[in-house]
Each structure stands twice: as structure tokens, then as C-alpha cells.
């Protein structure tokens, strides 16, 4: 696959995940919806690091650091949300 096709695919994925995040965010509140929005954000972080930044062939440490940070932040946000029953 050429670089331009890969970037277009990444862009389409980011646009789709962003649209999904907006739709989920407007559909209500709750832990499950927040988790779905965070999962979409993690997908976007993966697309950015692997696609746009082209780190798929970078050393494993760089990839773990760049993907670990959004994972840590999403976990922190979900841990701070009050449990709704």
C-alpha cells in the first residue's frame, strides 16, 4: 500500500472515530458510554502513532510509551468517574 493510501485510510479512521465519540457523548452519560468514548480515543491514539507518525517500525519502547500514556489517562478518567447504578 502506498503512503498516501495509508494516510487517507488513517484519516478516514480518525474521522469515523471522532464522529463516533461525538455521537456517544451526546447520547447520555454513564460509565459504559464513557468507556466507549475512551476506547474510541485509544483507537485514535493508535492510528496517530502507527499511521501518521509512522512508528510501526520504531523501537518497541517508543511505541509503548506513546500508547501507554493515553491508556494511563483513560484508566485514570474512568477510575475517577462515580459509579452509577
From TrEMBL:
> Where does the protein end up?
Cell membrane
Quick check: keyword GTP-binding in the entry? no
This protein's membrane topology, according to the annotation, is: Multi-pass membrane protein
What Gene Ontology terms describe where this protein resides (cellular component)? plasma membrane
Q: Which UniProt keywords are present, listed alphabetically?
A: Cell membrane, Membrane, Transmembrane, Transmembrane helix
Q: What is its main location?
A: membrane
Database matches in InterPro entries: Cyt_c_oxidase_su4_prok (IPR005171)
Source taxon at top rank? Bacteria
Q: Where are the transmembrane segments?
A: 31-49, 61-81
Protein name stated in the entry:
Cytochrome C oxidase subunit IV
Amino acid at each position: 500500500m502506498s503512503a498516501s493510501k495509508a494516510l487517507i485510510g488513517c484519516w478516514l479512521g480518525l474521522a469515523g472515530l471522532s464522529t463516533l465519540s461525538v455521537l456517544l457523548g451526546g447520547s447520555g452519560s454513564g460509565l459504559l458510554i464513557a468507556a466507549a468514548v475512551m476506547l474510541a480515543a485509544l483507537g485514535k491514539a493508535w492510528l496517530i502513532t502507527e499511521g501518521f507518525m509512522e512508528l510501526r517500525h520504531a523501537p518497541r519502547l517508543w511505541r509503548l510509551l506513546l500508547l501507554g500514556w493515553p491508556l494511563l489517562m483513560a484508566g485514570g478518567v474512568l477510575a475517577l468517574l462515580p459509579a452509577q447504578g
